[in-house]
């Protein structure tokens, strides 16, 4: 390469320029360099922001008798802010719905509603009205007054014998949401039979998932997954940028294995199963999910998984589908109340899996 007189080492061989730059040319070059520098600084900043935007913020802690596992895929600042908002919302609902905490609103209701009307907070009364509608939709199988049956069968305290029919029939006299008096004007509820009580375990996590999802979005989160003990809400994109998430359904005979996976996109999912909570009486294992119409635990189902738009609906309907089975579940899917459902149950000494959608039933 020839070296011309202006010391340029990257010019072409036929370069003949030897004149120094004028002041105008020099200022134009400096301006061009500054513009290029700003451009690359902007690109570099945008790349850093994009990298930050897809960072995973994962948060876990105990709540509502289970473990909360949350992942947000936004900037670190938004992830932290959303996680704090979710934490506050979940603990507020836990304080309202925890039947094992004497200071909770539901415990105070249970302690006095058979003596006089209990005036509820707006939040609790709205939740109880939702329970009333669910009771009607599920033909009485979703029933928050089943707590006396849970006591009888030893799901809160160990029992040494299987309840006899006379004990079950006596207990059933204090079960049935149709025996509760609702006063919308006073926002109060009254138990008409002594010994009645509420257990919100079949709806509280679903309500909490919805509240947590709203709190996260209000805090700026646009992508994430909230898992509250198997009650799941997914929104936006996953950490790989895909617009769906995968959830696994546990094998009923092998707690360490997944028997089926489903894809969730801006939806909620819940599974009711006999995997973890059960009672062993006289050497026989009984599911914790009670049929309040018969007074007996459900024995012919391993699990029911449902996908809905709202967490409260998936929580309620997974229980009802577990109790009522295929025909009821299929009807909910046909009506669009459920987006899809998976029932797992024993049949001919084998595990049968039924996947139900509007498009395909098998």
Structure description:
The protein is α+β, with helices and mostly antiparallel strands and 362 residues long. It has a domain at 244-362: Roll (T-fold), CATH 3.10.520.10. Helix content is 36%, strand content 25%. The protein has nine helices and 17 strands. It has helices at residues 23-53, 76-97, 105-112, 122-137, 147-152, 165-172, 204-218, 311-324, 326-334; strands spanning 57-63, 66-72, 118-119, 180-183, 188-191, 224-228, 231-235, 245-251, 254-264, 267-273, 278-281, 284-287, 290-291, 296-297, 303-308, 340-347, 350-356. The strands form five sheets. An eight-stranded antiparallel beta sheet has the order 1-2-6-7-10-15-16-17. β13 and β14 form a beta hairpin. α2 (76-97) packs antiparallel against α7. The radius of gyration is 30 Å and the shape is globular. Mean pLDDT is 84; it is low at 1-21 and 26-53.
What is the element layout, followed by pairings?
Elements: H1 23-53, E1 57-63, E2 66-72, H2 76-97, H3 105-112, E3 118-119, H4 122-137, H5 147-152, H6 165-172, E4 180-183, E5 188-191, H7 204-218, E6 224-228, E7 231-235, E8 245-251, E9 254-264, E10 267-273, E11 278-281, E12 284-287, E13 290-291, E14 296-297, E15 303-308, H8 311-324, H9 326-334, E16 340-347, E17 350-356
Helix pairs in contact: 2-7, 7-8
């Amino acid at each position: 390469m020839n070296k011309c007189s202006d010391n340029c080492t990257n010019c072409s061989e036929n370069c003949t320029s030897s004149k120094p730059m004028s002041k105008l040319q020099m200022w134009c070059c400096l301006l061009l360099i500054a513009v290029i520098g700003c451009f690359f600084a902007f690109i570099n900043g945008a790349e850093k922001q994009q990298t930050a935007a897809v960072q995973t913020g994962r948060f876990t802690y105990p709540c509502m008798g289970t473990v909360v596992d949350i992942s947000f895929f936004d900037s670190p600042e938004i992830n932290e802010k959303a996680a704090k908002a979710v934490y506050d919302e979940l603990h507020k609902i836990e304080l309202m719905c925890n039947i094992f905490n004497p200071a909770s609103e539901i415990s105070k209701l249970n302690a006095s509603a058979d003596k006089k009307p209990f005036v509820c907070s707006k939040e609790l009364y709205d939740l109880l009205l939702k329970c009333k509608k669910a009771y009607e939709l599920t033909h009485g199988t979703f029933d928050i007054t089943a707590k006396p049956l849970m006591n009888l069968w030893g799901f809160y305290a160990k029992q040494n014998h299987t309840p006899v029919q006379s004990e079950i029939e006596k207990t059933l006299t204090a079960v049935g949401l149709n025996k509760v008096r609702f006063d919308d004007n006073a926002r109060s509820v009254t138990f008409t039979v002594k010994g009645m009580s509420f257990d919100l375990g079949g709806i509280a996590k679903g309500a909490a998932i919805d509240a947590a999802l709203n709190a996260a979005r209000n805090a700026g989160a646009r992508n994430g997954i909230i898992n509250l003990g198997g009650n799941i809400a997914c929104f936006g994109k996953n950490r790989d940028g895909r617009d769906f998430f995968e959830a696994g359904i546990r094998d009923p005979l092998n707690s360490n294995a997944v028997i089926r996976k489903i894809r969730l996109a801006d939806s909620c999912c819940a599974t009711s199963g006999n995997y973890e909570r059960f009672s062993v009486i006289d050497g026989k294992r009984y599911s914790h999910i009670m049929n309040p119409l018969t007074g007996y635990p459900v024995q012919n189902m391993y699990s029911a998984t449902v996908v809905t738009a709202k967490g409260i609906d998936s929580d309620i309907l997974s229980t009802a589908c577990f109790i009522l089975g295929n025909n009821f579940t299929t009807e909910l899917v046909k009506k669009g109340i459920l987006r899809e459902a998976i029932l797992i149950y024993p049949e001919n000494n084998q595990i049968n899996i039924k996947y139900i959608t509007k498009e395909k039933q098998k």
